[in-house]
Specification:
Blueprint (H helix, E strand, L loop, with lengths): L1 E2 L7 E5 L7 H4 L1 H12 L3 E4 L5 H11 L4 E6 L1 H9 L2 E2 L2 E2 L5 E6 L6 H4 L6 H10 L2 E12 L5 E6 L2 E5 H14 L6 H9 L5 E7 L2 E2 L3 E9 L21 E7 L3 H13 L8 E6 L1 E6 L7 E4 L2 E20 L3
Parallel strand pairs: 2-3, 2-4, 4-7, 7-18
Antiparallel strand pairs: 1-8, 5-6, 8-9, 8-18, 10-13, 10-17, 11-12, 11-13, 11-16, 13-14, 14-15, 16-18, 17-18
Helix pairs in contact: 2-6, 3-4, 7-8
Length: 317
């Protein structure tokens, strides 16, 4: 579905200067010049704290902003998208999200076929079509033990993925090398597969041990892993990819297949499709982490629900 784009949209730029390991802030003068060349008139603000992008985008939409352009990574886009909603409804269903990839991963932009270069990404924003896509809503246990809800654009996962993202974040704070793959390798050797109850729509799967489960709207996560290679952002369904427990040698022998999307044929990996996924640990005292769009936010139990076609983005799908 495509919408007609207005000319001379009231535009707000939201920049995460810490994204891409701080390089976004360092290149701001260059980025600002490119934005002025492409968009002419706009307001801009920098994020200063966690979830600030959501506050900024929500305020901008209430002020009549028609186009919000995020400059940052997947976490920044997640926050901006969360600001599009209030009381579980879009504030203005016609507000458009534009994406300038400037993060260490920027995986969601790949599902929208947005090029990684600044100039080409701006061409998508100025000349590309508007597409209406699905989003995901996750309810989970937050760090303080209360239930929390958060929207996500790309992928939510539980299991080792949450542990890896937590370790990546901790390493960045300590200014250590923090590549996703390196953290996955180090995390794997200290990780225990989790015995889980999983329900997809009305089907309860047999209780089993799982390494990771991904609830995918987009195709790619983990800085280029084609974890859900068949996922479509506008088909009204999650692609749910479940990986049963594996030993280290078995996993790393097959890890390369995740990068080219051929892993779905592995006997311990299954693909399901549905609009709602409920997950809980068999041992309710066990802490099983989840992450959404590259941010580790809480733990199981969690419910993931697909909301069809409720946000407008600039991109090709």
């Amino acid at each position: 579905m495509f919408l007609k784009t207005k000319s001379l949209l009231k535009t707000q730029i939201i920049i995460n200067p810490q994204s891409d390991k701080g390089r976004t802030g360092q290149k701001w003068t260059e980025i600002k010049a490119g934005l002025k060349s492409a968009l002419k008139e706009f307001k801009y603000e920098f994020t200063e704290k966690p979830y600030h992008a959501a506050e900024l985008s929500r305020a901008a939409i209430k002020d009549g902003t028609e186009l919000i352009v995020g400059v940052g990574g997947d976490g920044t886009m997640n926050e901006i998208a969360n600001g599009f909603f209030e009381n579980r409804k879009p504030i203005n269903p016609e507000t458009i999200l534009g994406i300038v990839p400037s993060g260490t991963g920027s995986d969601f932009s790949r599902s929208l076929n947005i090029p990684p270069s600044f100039q080409k990404a701006m061409q998508v924003i100025t000349d590309g079509p508007n597409a209406v896509i699905d989003t995901g809503s996750a309810r989970f246990k937050s760090e303080d033990g209360r239930e929390k809800e958060r929207y996500f654009l790309n992928i939510g996962d539980f299991g080792i993925g949450g542990e890896v993202v937590r370790n990546v974040t901790l390493n960045r704070k300590k200014r250590k090398t923090s590549s996703y793959l390196r953290c996955m390798i180090s995390t794997f050797f200290n990780y225990t597969n989790k015995k889980l109850r999983i329900r997809i729509d009305d089907e309860a799967l047999p209780v089993d041990e799982y390494l990771i489960g991904a609830i995918a709207n987009g195709r790619v996560f983990g800085k280029g892993m084609k974890f859900a290679p068949q996922a479509l952002v506008d088909d009204g369904l999650f692609d749910v990819v479940l990986v049963k427990g594996m030993k280290a040698l078995e996993f790393f022998r097959n890890a390369w297949r995740i990068y080219n999307g051929s892993h779905l044929s592995h006997p311990k990996i299954s693909l399901h499709r549905g609009r709602r996924v409920d997950v809980q640990a068999l041992d309710q005292d066990e802490d099983v982490l989840i992450e959404l769009d590259g941010e580790q936010l809480g733990s199981l139990p969690a419910s993931f629900e697909l909301i069809p076609r409720n946000i407008v983005v600039k991109g090709y799908i």
